[in-house]
Amino acid sequence: MDAEITLRVDGEAHRLTVDTRTSLLDALRERLGNTSPKKGCDHGQCGACTVLLDGDRALTCLALAVAHDGAEITTADGLAPAGELHPVQQAFLDSDAFQCGYCTPGQVCSAVGVLDEFERGWPSHVTEDLTGRPEMTSDEVAERMSGNLCRCAAYVNITPAVQQAGGAR
Amino acid sequence: MKPFAYARPGDVAEAVRDVVAEPNAVFLAGGTNLVDHLRLGVARPDLVVDVRTLTSREVTDLPDGGLRLGAASTNSQVAADPRVRERWPVLAQALLAGATGQLRNMATTGGNPLQRTRCVYFQDVTTPCNKREPGSGCSAVGGYTRYHAVLGTPAVLPDPAAPESCIATHPSDMAVALAVLDARVQVLGPNGERTIPFTELHRLPGDDPSRDTVLEHGELITAIDLPALPAGTRSAYRKVRDRASYAFALVSVAAVVPPDGELRLALGGVAHKPWRATRAEEVLRGQQLTEDAVRAAIAAELADAQPQPGIDSGNGFKIPLVARTVLATVRGLLPEEQS
C-alpha cells in the first residue's frame, strides 16, 4: 500500500511515494540515493543508520517513512554542506576515530546529538548527581555513545574525538 | 514484511474508533519495538494507526503535586525533566538505564510499558511460542532461560507443550519505576476514559500468555500520572546486566524510602510483569530498615521463587542476585548512621 510523503533531507525537500512498509533508512538510501546512513543490523541494535530526525539523533531503521511525513532530516553528509567539515567530523579525522569507516556516519550524527544533549544539561546513566550539570568525561561520552557499535573497535579514539569536538565548540 | 494500511487520524478518539473497527489493527507510537516486530514477522497487523502526533508530548504539573506524562513524551525528555530528576529520581534513573540515546529519543511514555518481551523464542518466528502463537508451546522451558522469570511462575516446572506455559519477563526498566511509584495509567477506549493503577496494567501469563496487559483492543494510553511523594523521600533504581550499557536487565530494583521509613520495592527482570514486592513491604511494615530486616523481607518475597533450569545452568542465579541487589539499593538510600 502506497503513501505520498515529503521529506526534507540535508536542506532539500523531496516528494516521494513510498510503500507503507518502507523504513526511513530505505527511503533515504534506495529512493533518494543518500547512502550516508548505513544499514548494519536493521534492528535498532548497531546505530549505523543514525541521523538527526527533527533535531534529535534517531534510528532510521526503526522509523517508518510514512510516519515521518514532513520530517527534517540531517545525515552525516548534510553536516558538511559545502564540503566544509563539521567540527565532529574534523575531530574524528584528527583522532583517527575509525578504521573501516562503515559505522562512522552514524557515529558522527550520534556524537552531534550527544554534544547537544550535554549542552542542554541532560543526565546519563553514569551521571552521579542527577540534578547537576554533567561533565564531558570519557565515562559520560562512552555511555552516551553506547548505541553506536564499531566492529573495528575504534572506541578508544572515538571517545576523545567526541570530547575534542565538544571542547572546540 | 506483510503489507498493511497506515492511518494517521485527526485525533485520539478517531484513532480509537479506527482500531476498534479493525480486529487486526495496532497503535504505533515511537515504533522502536513495533517496527522491529513488523520486520521479524512477530507482528502482522492489517492496519497501523499512528498516534505519535495525536497524544500529548507535554509533561505537566498536577494540582496535587504530581506530574502528568503525556503519552507521546519521549523517554529522554522525561529523564531530562528537572522535576523528574529532582523528585522522582528512581524514574529518571530507570529511563537512563534503558536502551540508548537514539532509542530513548524515539520511545514514548505510552509505548515503553507496552513493549514486548525480549524472550529469544518470542522473537524467532520459527520456534513454538505461546505468547506469539497461542497453543504452540513454550520453547523457553528448558531452553535459554537466562533472561526469564523466577517469580509468578507455576510452583512446578512448566510443561513446554502446555498452551499456558510462558516464562518470559517484561523487559522495561521504566515500568519497574512506575510500579514502585504507584503511577496511574490514563486510558481512552471505546467505552470512554478509565484510570488503571500501574501495578494492575500488566498481567501474569495465567491461561493466556499472549496478553501482556489488561488493556482491551482499541484502548489507548493517553498519559501516565506520577503521584506526589512526601518531601524528603529518597528513591533509586539499580540494574544488573551482562554489559555496562545497552543491555536488558538480568535483575533490577526500584526502591522508594519515604521519611516515615516504609520501604516501597519493585523488581524487574524476574517476572512476566514489573514485580511490586508487596510481601517484602508487608514484612517490613513498622520495622527499622536494618540489614537483617531487609534480608528477611526479601527472603519472604522470594520464598516461592522458581528457578528455571536450562542452557548455561539456567537462571537460578537470579535468586541470590535479587537479594543482594535489593540490599545494595536500600543501603544506598539510608542515612549514613542507619546503614
TrEMBL record, chain A:
InterPro entries: 2Fe-2S-bd (IPR002888), 2Fe-2S-bd_dom_sf (IPR036884), 2Fe-2S_ferredoxin-like_sf (IPR036010), 2Fe-2S_ferredoxin-type (IPR001041), 2Fe2S_fd_BS (IPR006058), Aldehyde_Oxdr_Iron-Sulfur (IPR052914), Beta-grasp_dom_sf (IPR012675). It comes from the Bacteria. Pathway: Alkaloid degradation; nicotine degradation. One of its GO terms (molecular function) is metal ion binding. Residues 3-79 form the 2Fe-2S ferredoxin-type domain. Transmembrane segments: none annotated. Keywords: 2Fe-2S, Iron, Iron-sulfur, Metal-binding, Oxidoreductase. CDD domains: fer2. Pfam families: Fer2, Fer2_2. PANTHER family: OXIDOREDUCTASE WITH IRON-SULFUR SUBUNIT, OXIDOREDUCTASE, IRON-SULPHUR BINDING SUBUNIT-RELATED-RELATED. This is (2Fe-2S)-binding protein. It comes from Modestobacter caceresii.
UniProtKB/TrEMBL annotation, chain B:
It comes from the Bacteria. InterPro entries: CO_DH_flav_C (IPR005107), CO_DH_flav_C_dom_sf (IPR036683), Diverse_Substr_Oxidored (IPR051312), FAD-bd_PCMH (IPR016166), FAD-bd_PCMH-like_sf (IPR036318), FAD-bd_PCMH_sub1 (IPR016167), FAD-bd_PCMH_sub2 (IPR016169), Mopterin_DH_FAD-bd (IPR002346). One of its GO terms (molecular function) is FAD binding. Keywords: Oxidoreductase. Residues 1-231 form the FAD-binding PCMH-type domain. This is Molybdopterin dehydrogenase. It comes from Modestobacter caceresii.
